[in-house]
């Protein structure tokens, strides 16, 4: 194991020596990792989301020794592998061929191979292929190793200034307006911050739908994270929707949205809704509908429904 020798805390007058010590330590750690035998298994390796320096020493050591690296796009991943002089055998694994490739990948692991899986950027499986492969590997008792590292969702969330103690990652919204608004209505009930990906050419219209369905919540648009033109735009959803409808957007986009204010539904509001429904529905069906619409407990809905029904009698 590499042990740093004679590395006392440097004085402020010797920054160059300190940098050399750090460089030697990192090189020693990487050398130790590469010398340690790599067990057969499936390795899910996080890769940079933009800046190629954002890769862990452990990730480099695994990719350099893997018997094969399955990539979302082999041409894209070649830039990273070449940057670190990693001469790995690469194969494609994407949404169009994952089902066909599962048996090949699992067969290689079961034959004693060390197989790595990477996405185009960030942590594999987050809005990327690989879930079905991992599920199949787990069902067959194959060893699965997650090699943590960069994640666009977490990078955007932690730099947003939006509460991070409770959040929900929703991936990409549907492309069509109707389906998108339906999905947003489902997300509106989640009591926490929301993190989403969006295609740049749909950003303006998606933000407008978010404002309409979720309310004018505080939000942050993170673009080109870790890259030269990284930007964070903060503001209410309506303000951001207006800005990004007028301004053409390029590059990768992550949207972070603050939690909505809890809604208090009064008894009068519940009873008024029952009076609208009870002329055409049974009490049981109306109670189920009201509980779902107003997001209240079914027991409360049924009790207030009885009260409303008595008033109508």
Structure notes:
By secondary structure, this protein is α/β, with parallel strands linked by helices. The chain folds into three domains: 39-150, Cobalt-precorrin-4 Transmethylase, domain 1; 153-257, Tetrapyrrole methylase, C-terminal domain (Methyltransferase, Cobalt-precorrin-4 Transmethylase, Domain 2, 2-Layer Sandwich), CATH 3.30.950; 267-312. It contains twelve helices and ten strands. It has helices at residues 15-35, 57-65, 74-83, 98-110, 131-139, 152-160, 177-187, 203-214, 237-246, 267-277, 283-294, 298-312, and strands at residues 41-45, 68-71, 90-92, 114-118, 144-147, 167-172, 193-198, 218-223, 231-236, 253-257. The chain has a five-stranded parallel β-sheet, sandwiched between helices. Helix 4 packs parallel to helix 5 (131-139), helix 8 runs antiparallel to helix 9 (237-246) and helix 10 (267-277) crosses helix 11 (283-294). The protein is elongated. The protein starts with 14 loop residues before the first helix and ends with a helix. The mean pLDDT is 92.
What is the strand and helix layout of this fold?
Blueprint: H1 15-35, E1 41-45, H2 57-65, E2 68-71, H3 74-83, E3 90-92, H4 98-110, E4 114-118, H5 131-139, E5 144-147, H6 152-160, E6 167-172, H7 177-187, E7 193-198, H8 203-214, E8 218-223, E9 231-236, H9 237-246, E10 253-257, H10 267-277, H11 283-294, H12 298-312
Parallel strand pairs: 1-4, 1-5, 2-3, 2-4, 6-7
Antiparallel strand pairs: 7-10, 8-9, 8-10
Helix pairs in contact: 1-2, 4-5, 7-8, 8-9, 10-11, 10-12, 11-12
């Amino acid at each position: 194991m590499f042990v740093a020798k004679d590395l006392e805390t440097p004085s402020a007058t010797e920054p160059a020596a300190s940098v050399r010590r750090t460089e030697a330590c990192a090189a020693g750690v990487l050398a130790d990792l590469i010398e340690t035998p790599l067990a057969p298994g499936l390795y899910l390796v996080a890769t940079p989301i933009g800046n190629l320096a954002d890769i862990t020493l452990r990730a480099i050591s695994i990719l350099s020794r893997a018997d094969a690296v399955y990539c979302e796009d082999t041409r894209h991943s070649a830039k990273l592998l070449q940057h670190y002089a990693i001469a790995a055998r690469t194969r494609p694994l994407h949404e169009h061929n994952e089902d066909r490739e599962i048996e090949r990948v699992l067969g290689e692991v079961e034959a004693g191979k060390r197989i790595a899986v990477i996405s185009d950027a960030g942590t594999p499986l987050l809005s990327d292929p690989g879930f079905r492969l991992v599920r199949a590997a787990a069902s067959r008792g194959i060893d699965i190793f997650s090699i943590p590292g960069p994640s666009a969702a977490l990078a955007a969330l932690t730099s947003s200034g939006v509460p991070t103690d409770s959040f929900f990652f929703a991936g990409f919204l549907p492309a069509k307006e109707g389906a998108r608004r339906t999905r947003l209505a489902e997300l509106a009930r989640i009591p926490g911050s929301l993190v989403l990906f969006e295609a740049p050419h749909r950003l303006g219209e998606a933000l407008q739908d978010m404002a309409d369905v979720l309310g004018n919540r505080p939000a942050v648009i993170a673009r080109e994270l870790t890259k030269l033109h990284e930007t964070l735009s903060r503001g209410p959803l309506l303000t951001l929707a207006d800005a990004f409808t007028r301004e053409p957007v390029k590059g990768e986009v992550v949207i972070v949205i603050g939690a909505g204010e809890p809604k208090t539904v009064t008894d009068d509001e519940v009873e008024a809704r029952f009076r609208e429904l009870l002329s055409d529905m049974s009490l049981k069906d109306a109670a189920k509908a009201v509980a779902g619409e107003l997001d209240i407990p079914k027991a409360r809905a049924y009790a207030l429904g009885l009260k409303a029904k008595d008033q109508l009698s």
